[in-house]
Write a structure and sequence with these properties.
By secondary structure, the protein is α+β, with helices and mostly antiparallel strands. It has a single domain (5-59), classed as 2-Layer Sandwich (Ribosomal Protein L30, Chain: A). It is 36% helix and 22% strand. The protein has 3 helices and 3 strands. A 3-stranded antiparallel beta sheet has the order 2-1-3. The N and C termini lie far apart (26 Å).
Length: 67
């Protein structure tokens, strides 16, 4: 059985944000705008995404295949 993954894209800058939010983005593997990472869908990753939800978005799988 394949592990479920999600694709996360950074849509806003971490400038002028609390350090903990910048560190969370780094933990997700995001450091510049419009970068995408495919991550394993675990509760820990979902929690990190929820804490910086205003800076990232989850990309639809169909949209990811187009680009």
């Amino acid at each position: 059985m394949a592990k479920k993954t999600i694709i996360v894209e950074q849509i806003a800058s971490a400038n002028r944000r609390p350090a903990v939010q910048t560190q969370t983005l780094r933990g997700l593997g995001l450091d510049k705008l419009h970068r995408r990472r495919e991550l394993e869908d675990t509760p820990a990753v979902r929690g990190m995404i929820n804490s910086v939800s205003h800076l990232v978005r989850i990309v639809d799988a169909a949209e990811a295949k187009k680009s």
